[in-house]
Amino acid sequence: MAVRLLGPVELTGPSGNAVLSGVRQRALVGALAFNAGRSVPSARLVDALWGAEPPRTAFKTLHGHVARLRRVLHACGSPDLLVTSGSGYLLAASRDDVDGLRFEDIVAAARADLAENRLARAVERFRDGLALWRGDPVQDGELFGWGEAEVHRLQEVRLTAVEDLCDAELRLGRHGSVVAEAERVLVDHPLRERMVELLMQACYRSGRPAEALGAYRRLRVRLADELGADPSADLQRLHTAILRQDVAVEDAAREDAPRPQMPRPAQLPPRVGHFTGRREQMRALDEALDGASDAPIVVVSGAGGMGKTAVVVQWAHTVRDRFPDGQLFLDLRGHDDRLAMTPAAAIVHALRSLGVPESWLPGDREEQMGLLRSHLDGRSVLIVLDNAASSDQVLPFVPASPTSALVVTSRRAMAALTTYHSVCAVQLGAMSGEESLALLRAVVGAPRIDRERSDAATVARLCAGLPLALRIVAAKLLHRPELTFGELAAELSGVDRLGVLDIEGDARGVRAVLASAYRTLSEPAAALFRRLGVQPELGFDPHLAAAVGGGDQTEALAELVGAHLIAAVGGGRYRFHDLIGVYARECVDDSRDETVTRLLDWYLGIADAANRSQPSTYDRVTPELTYPPAQLPFGGAGPAGLSRRRAAQPAAGDPFRRGRGARCRRLAAGLPAQRLLQHARAVDGPHRAVPPRPDGGAAGR
């Protein structure tokens, strides 16, 4: 998709050019494209389209414009380019797709070439970038507020790029070209002092000193008439040097100008309120900092909503005095592939935070990494990278100096990072029941907890130790004094448990956080996640995963573990966190019927194999399976080799009500009641002993 803003607004998709209609629709495209890849709130779009005094129907009209723009995008072959994101909209385009953003990237690379004295390359890049301009930005749209300011900013970037181009050409001795370009710019912008300076130098070096002095006189008169000001000191010195026929004096003065002092970054966010528990993880972070021989590298991983950022920020504030040269904090936005910060963008962000001027930034990524290491060398800086998605985002920030430290938070374990460096891994799991109650007590208040202690414990249990869920229910209780813990527990026990764990006006509810983790999965892992949501238990093994997934699921299971959407609990088994299990059931799609059939056939296969392993004097029932198990969980060891597996009843109840009575009756008939009891004892072994009935009755009932 190509989005052109530098002139009349144009959109070109796989099916051709989009047919845009109306000033407002073009302005909407411009406002979204200025922020390509980032969500723009509706209120901000209203400001850009109508300014400080929008009509009362502005939001409704905006939604209408968005709907029409989506139809236009669909017609040109880009139906997914405009997406709803939170309370606003996002244009899912890269910087390379938008000419205005690509222009700025090209100019940044050209300035890096200029700083490294690669003059010919700089000239080529400046000309490539300037060639993208076909007129004023969003020429056929009308923007207000920040949108109008963005247009003016882009125009200023263009003028500065022209000045930098003239500077490079001047150094290459192309004086005539500079004279022509400078005179064209000064027709419309006669008060740009740097352009007058470049024109004066070019005229003088072309053997035209009178024209150089004339350019100075014109500027001086205009400044005096319009602003009551004099030319800058630099221009006055250049004027004097030309009078003395000595331009080299000005060149030397510019080269000897002192470089700006590097600032001390202090970017840590404020600590989260009512921080509770996590002593073990805080101690692990302290030990990693104290025990490292090289620069400490720590990765704090866990599922979304576990409070990784809160833990790291809390700890970072306790050790910030040990890093006198500052603290860098970057949100890499790895929870959403559409918004994730690229490694190159992250490096540039860090360099700017360290005070590196724009003109010093090289265009090559390797050179940027080298510059970053140079600025960190010998300094004591704490670097916190929040929401990392991959080791590629992290590797450029590994400090070479042992006096600095790097701490990363991620929903993934970042195993690839350990291939290159010594990493301390800190995993963040669910809070204990005691910690959960302590957090509720801190937010809601001890008297209220003490009055409803039993119901408060129930609410804490239904939040399953997820700090985000606990904070949301605490906020509900705090802002709704009439709501009791018992009423809240009843809501959490209802059909929409995750809906209760959303909070009005905040897009970071539990469901949204889990959805952002689910969206990053590959299709095989996402499909397995949905299918596992059908089976009724939170725990399962690889054999059951293979049964519902239709084949070996080793890679998909590893990906789900790496994304902290399931946990490996030992003995070759896996388990959903309670709330993630609820979300998995919400994600079940139209493959549900097939998955239920696979699940029932799996249990039928187990029951049949277990039945045949025992001597019998009655006629066995031979099940007819659509999806026979490829491998039984007990292999050649017989049913006693199973561990932690319940008898077949969990799978039978719900499908029986959904038209699978025949399969469920076969499942019940697969083993007589007393034999089913024996097998249940053998299956569960020491983990889940099945007690005998006092009346000798059959457990199968």
Describe this structure in words.
It is a single chain. This protein is of the alpha/beta class. The protein folds into six domains: 1-158, Winged helix-like DNA-binding domain superfamily/Winged helix DNA-binding domain (Arc Repressor Mutant, subunit A); 173-257, Serine Threonine Protein Phosphatase 5, Tetratricopeptide repeat; 279-428, P-loop containing nucleotide triphosphate hydrolases (Rossmann fold); 433-511; 521-589, Orthogonal Bundle (Arc Repressor Mutant, subunit A), CATH 1.10.10; 594-684, no CATH class. It has 31 helices and 14 strands. The strands form four sheets. Strands 8-9-10-7-11 form a five-stranded parallel beta sheet, sandwiched between helices. Helix 4 runs parallel beside helix 6 and helix 8 (193-205) runs parallel beside helix 10. The longest helix is centred in the N-terminal third of the chain and has 27 residues, at 145-171. The protein is elongated, with a radius of gyration of 33 Å.
How many distinct domains? 6
Strand content: 5-15%
Give the end-to-end Cα distance, rounded to a whole number of Å: 63 Å
- Work out the helix count: 31
Structural class comes to alpha/beta
| Helical fraction | 40-55%
- DSSP summary, beta strand count: 14
List low-confidence stretches: 249-260, 636-659, 670-701
CATH class group of the largest domain: Mainly Alpha
The dominant shape is: elongated
Characterize the largest beta sheet: strand count, sense, and whether it forms a barrel: 5 strands, parallel
Instruction: Trace the largest sheet across and list its strands.
Output: 8-9-10-7-11
The CATH homologous superfamily of the largest domain is called: Winged helix-like DNA-binding domain superfamily/Winged helix DNA-binding domain
Average of per-residue pLDDT values: 82
Look up the CATH topology of the largest domain. Answer: Arc Repressor Mutant, subunit A
What value does the Rg take, in angstroms?
33 Å
CATH architecture of the largest domain: Orthogonal Bundle
